[in-house]
């Protein structure tokens, strides 16, 4: 059985919530599949999913009880919480506040309203996130202090900027932070705002001086672009980088799995990167700046510049306008988003840009025309009435209408003065 009712999928959805939104965790233990007269425990980390043998409470009740008792004896670290980013319960503070408010409401209303209330009764757990649909709590790490470089550098975490929603993979999390303590070389950073990036890369990909290597490589990549020297000034400064391995002599779950599965299991480390914060796009308050930034990004990264279409008609003077267009694009359903974008590209009309982006109007019209013509070309039918099978290149470039050269020609022809 597959689909949303598949027990494996349902258990994985709970693990996904915990690894993505349940605090900074290396692994999750305890998702259980009930099978006949027993259960199977499932272990998840960023490299593997492992099921236990069947624990039959009829045939071997002692073993079953021993395993359950063993789970109650696990430390926070053994449950997967990393000690460096120590998150105290509750994991979902906003949900806890909702429950407290409801509890207070019940106590205040005790003895009143004996008549039946109309409408559907509210479920006690209505505010709990549905399995597989947990939402990011941007304040989950707020106020936590992380001691780096043997305690010499201490940033205090603030709101979450990005949290990668995944089980297998690096599980990257990017958090705003403020340096609240620093000694020696870090004293000059006290009071400064920084960005802290946490991830679980493969242990085999760990190099030597990560800080200098990462920055030098980024600079080298940018300098290969035509406007590289100008763009290099916009690279974030990498202030500090360090990795956390399993301490020598300590046998972790990952160490055991690595011995069992050998090269098939990818052992991971916690990597923490501290860098200077990037400025938001909202600082672009005139057409010339907006053009230069989006053109530079496209030139160096070959990134689809269609996001510029939305930005130039949603922001004015660095602020989101009232009733901005493209709000329905922010939905989390990929099919709905695809339909919205296709509908936009198929329409002949254009959305009026905000006042300070009006000089970009003709550029935006031509970019949208290229997208529109490309979509039409990809859906064109042959003499037999069937849509022709496209090559990967045609899919990527919309049959040449949105290739690098075609878009660059539009940028150059309609450059903002």
| C-alpha-based Rg, rounded | 27 Å
Apparent shape: globular
Uncertain residue ranges: 92-134
Q: Please report the distance between the alpha carbons of the first and last residues.
A: 60 Å
Order of helices and strands: HEEEEHHEEEHHEHEHHEEHHHH
Average pLDDT metric: 76
Helix proportion: 25-40%
**How many individual helices?**
12
β-strand amount: 15-25%
Summing up helix and strand content along with how strands pair, one would put the structural category as alpha+beta
Q: List the domain count as a whole number.
A: 3
User: What is the number of beta strands?
Assistant: 11
Which descriptors apply to this entry?
417 residues, Fungal-type protein kinase domain-containing protein, 16% strand, alpha+beta, 3 domains, five-stranded antiparallel β-sheet, four-stranded antiparallel β-sheet, Pkinase_fungal
What does the model show?
The protein has helices at residues 7-21, 61-72, 93-108, 210-223, 228-232, 253-261, 287-301, 307-311, 334-346, 361-378, 392-397, 404-413, and strands spanning 27-35, 38-45, 49-51, 55-56, 153-163, 173-182, 193-199, 238-244, 270-275, 315-316, 319-320. The protein is 33% helix and 16% strand. Helix 10 (361-378) packs antiparallel against helix 12 (404-413). It has three domains: 7-72, no CATH class; 153-275; 281-413, no CATH class. By secondary structure, it is α+β, with helices and mostly antiparallel strands. The protein is globular, with a radius of gyration of 27 Å. The protein has a five-stranded antiparallel β-sheet with strand order 5-6-7-9-8, covered by helices on one side. Strands 1, 2, 3 and 4 form a four-stranded antiparallel β-sheet that branches. Strands 10-11 form a two-stranded antiparallel ribbon. Residues 98-134 are annotated as: Disordered.
């Amino acid at each position: 059985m597959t689909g949303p009712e598949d027990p494996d999928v349902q258990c994985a959805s709970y693990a996904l919530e915990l690894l993505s939104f349940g605090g900074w965790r290396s692994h999750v233990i305890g998702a259980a599949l009930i099978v006949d007269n027993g259960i199977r425990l499932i272990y998840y980390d960023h490299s593997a999913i492992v099921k236990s043998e069947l624990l039959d409470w009829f045939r071997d009740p002692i073993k079953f009880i021993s395993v359950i008792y063993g789970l109650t004896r696990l430390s926070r670290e053994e449950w997967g919480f990393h000690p460096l980013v120590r998150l105290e319960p509750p994991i979902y503070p906003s949900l806890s506040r909702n429950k407290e408010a409801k509890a207070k409401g019940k106590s205040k209303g005790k003895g009143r309203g004996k008549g039946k209330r109309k409408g559907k009764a509210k479920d006690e757990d209505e505010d709990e996130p549905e399995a597989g649909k947990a939402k990011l709590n941007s304040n989950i790490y707020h106020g936590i202090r992380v001691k780096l470089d043997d305690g010499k550098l201490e940033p205090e975490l603030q709101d979450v900027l990005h949290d990668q929603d995944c089980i297998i993979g690096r599980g990257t999390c990017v958090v705003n932070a403020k340096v609240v303590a620093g000694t020696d070389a870090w004293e000059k950073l006290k009071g400064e705002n920084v960005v802290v990036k946490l991830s679980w890369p493969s242990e085999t990909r760990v190099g030597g001086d990560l800080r200098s290597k990462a920055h030098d490589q980024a600079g080298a990549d940018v300098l290969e672009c035509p406007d590289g020297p100008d763009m290099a000034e916009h690279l974030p400064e990498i202030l500090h980088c360090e990795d956390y391995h399993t301490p020598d002599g300590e046998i972790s779950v990952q160490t055991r799995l690595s011995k069992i599965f050998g090269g098939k299991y990818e052992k991971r480390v916690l990597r923490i990167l501290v860098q200077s914060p990037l400025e938001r796009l909202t600082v672009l308050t005139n057409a010339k700046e907006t053009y230069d930034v989006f053109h530079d990004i496209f030139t160096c990264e070959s990134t689809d510049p269609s996001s510029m279409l939305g930005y130039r008609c949603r922001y004015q003077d660095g602020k989101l306008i009232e009733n901005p267009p493209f709000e329905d694009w922010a939905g989390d359903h990929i099919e709905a988003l695809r339909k919205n974008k296709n509908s936009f590209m198929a329409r002949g009309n254009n959305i009026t840009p905000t006042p300070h982006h009006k000089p970009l109007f003709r550029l935006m019209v031509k970019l949208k025309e290229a997208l529109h013509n490309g979509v039409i070309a990809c859906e064109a039918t042959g003499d037999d009435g069937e849509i022709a099978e496209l090559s990967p290149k045609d899919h990527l470039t919309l049959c040449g209408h949105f290739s690098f050269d075609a878009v660059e020609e539009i940028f150059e022809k309609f450059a903002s003065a």
